[in-house]
Write a structure and sequence with these properties.
Radius of gyration: 24 Å
Family: Belongs to the poly(ADP-ribose) glycohydrolase family.
Number of domains: 2
Pfam families: PARG_cat_C, PARG_cat_N
EC number: 3.2.1.143
Order of helices and strands: HHEEHHEHHHHEHEEHHEEEEHHEHEHHHH
Oligomer: single chain
Distance between the termini: 55 Å
Largest sheet: 8 strands, mixed
InterPro entries: PARG_cat_C (IPR046372), PARG_helical (IPR048362), Poly_GlycHdrlase (IPR007724)
Enzyme class: hydrolase
Length: about 450
């Protein structure tokens, strides 16, 4: 089993790190902090230079929390890191690597200690939060600074009254569990699924502009990157989408970023026990930290389990925007994402205590360039095959998807996975036959969904 800490880490490396941490805790500005961390960390971000000068922006000197951070919070975070040998010198912290179905359980104290080590770039696997507070010169993008403020708020809460925070568990076991699920090789195609007689599960549409986080379902889909957490530790444009915002407002989720290898196509994660520490507003370039969630508030003890699944990328690498609306391409290419979603949903369904209802939405339809209509059906098929009873669907601002689900409710009550797959194929073929390219690529999906509904109606004999 691969371990986060090498066997001799706390015997050979830690004395030097511990001595240097004493200096870190006495720093009063960003420049001094960077110089102190250079002496004890291999994090390349602390050593970067351009034209012979240190290449970073002193974000920590400019945020509203700056004075408090250096005077009060920084020494407390250093003390949290100094406790690492006590917590981990005799405990194996497994890395969740590709191809191995494994899980790790950590107490909240252990999670906090590892995240504090990541903050200072002291983890042996080089997982580091440093790009958020030492971005390269010219790269201090405001939304990412707001992520930093979320982390500082978390560390403030964790170190201010540990007895209150650590004795308010969101799970019966008082900590976090991260599970890497592996479905194994599969050769099933969408065409083969056309004969599948499994009944479709129920899909319940929720009001527009209602976030998934408000769902009472225990399972919530994380619109993930293959590298879990996506750009949560990065200071780059676009690094505040759904996954990054969820991880920033529930910072304990980031333990999965620290411990997990990149997901393969046949892998997913379940993350249980992360609590809701931070409130926010906005999305992407309007994201902002708006305040703390107090442990006494109902939504602090967040019972939701994150089902971490990454969709196929279509708009990356210059593939181009029209593919978002090429239904024939995305339907024919759907097998990978059906399998990915099935991996996550099936892993969740094997734990009966998590229930059989999952909240999701337009997965893989932002930067990844997926069609919202096709991704709806992919998740519907996978959830049905996994044995879930209900998908709670949050279309955000997609009125077309919302109306389709309202219109289709009665029709699909007796429909099967095979009938939906046949309807999808037929609708995609008809869409590709449109002569007008604007109709084919630029419409809102309504025509495609109407054809799916019509084909389902025909296929179910109604």
């Amino acid at each position: 089993m691969a371990s986060l800490f090498p066997e001799d880490f706390f015997l050979t490396r830690w004395p030097h790190i511990s001595q240097g941490l004493d200096l870190v805790g006495r720093c009063s500005d960003a420049g001094a902090l960077r110089a102190s961390l250079q002496a004890i960390s291999d994090d390349s971000n602390f050593h970067a230079a351009r034209h012979g000068k240190p290449d970073f922006e002193a974000v920590l000197d400019d945020i509203p929390e700056s004075e408090h951070f250096f005077a009060t919070l920084l020494p407390k975070m250093v003390q949290l890191v100094q406790d690492a040998p006590k917590r981990f010198s005799s405990k194996c912290v497994p890395l969740l690597v590709q191809g191995i179905a494994e899980h790790v359980f950590l107490t909240y104290e252990e999670v906090a200690t590892l995240l504090a080590m990541a903050f200072f770039g002291l983890l042996p696997n080089n997982a580091s939060i440093s790009p958020l507070y030492f971005p390269k010169d010219g790269c201090a993008f405001p939304p990412n600074t707001e992520k930093l403020r979320c982390f500082l708020s978390y560390f403030e809460d964790i170190t201010s009254d540990s007895s209150a925070i650590f004795t308010t568990p969101s799970t019966a076991s008082g900590g976090m569990r991260v599970t890497r699920a592996l479905l194994g090789a599969d050769t099933t195609t969408l065409q083969e699924l056309e004969t599948n007689t499994c009944r479709l599960c129920q899909v319940i549409p929720h009001d527009l502009r209602t976030p998934i986080s408000q769902s009472s379902a225990l399972l919530h889909v994380d619109f993930a990157n293959a590298r879990v957490g996506g750009g949560i530790f990065l200071n780059a444009p676009g690094a505040t989408a759904q996954e990054e915002i969820t991880f920033a407002t529930h910072p304990e989720l980031c333990i999965a970023t620290v411990l997990c290898d990149v997901l393969r196509d046949d892998e997913a994660l379940l993350i249980q026990g992360a609590r809701h520490f931070c409130r926010h507003a906005g999305f992407l370039d309007t994201f902002s930290f708006t305040g703390k969630v107090h442990p006494s508030e109902p939504d602090f003890k967040n019972a939701a389990v994150q089902v971490v699944i990454d969709a196929k990328m279509y708009d990356g690498g210059g593939i181009g925007r029209p593919y978002r609306y090429d239904y024939k391409l995305q339907v024919e290419d759907a097998a990978r994402d059906i399998y990915k979603a099935l991996c996550g949903f099936q892993a969740a369904s094997l734990q009966p205590e998590l229930g059989r209802s999952c909240a999701t939405g337009n997965w893989g339809c932002g930067a990844f360039g997926g069609s919202a209509a096709v991704k709806l059906f992919i998740q519907w098929i996978a959830a049905s095959l996994a044995g879930l009873q209900t998908l709670e669907y949050y279309p955000w601002d997609d009125r077309v998807i919302f109306q389709f689900l309202v219109d289709a409710a009665a029709l699909v009550a007796e429909a099967t996975v095979g009938q939906l797959c046949r309807a999808l194929r037929r609708a995609a073929e008809l869409q590709s036959e449109l002569e007008n390219e604007v109709q084919r690529y630029e419409e809102d999906g309504a025509e495609f969904l109407r054809v799916v509904l019509r084909e389902l109606h025909s296929g179910t004999g109604r």
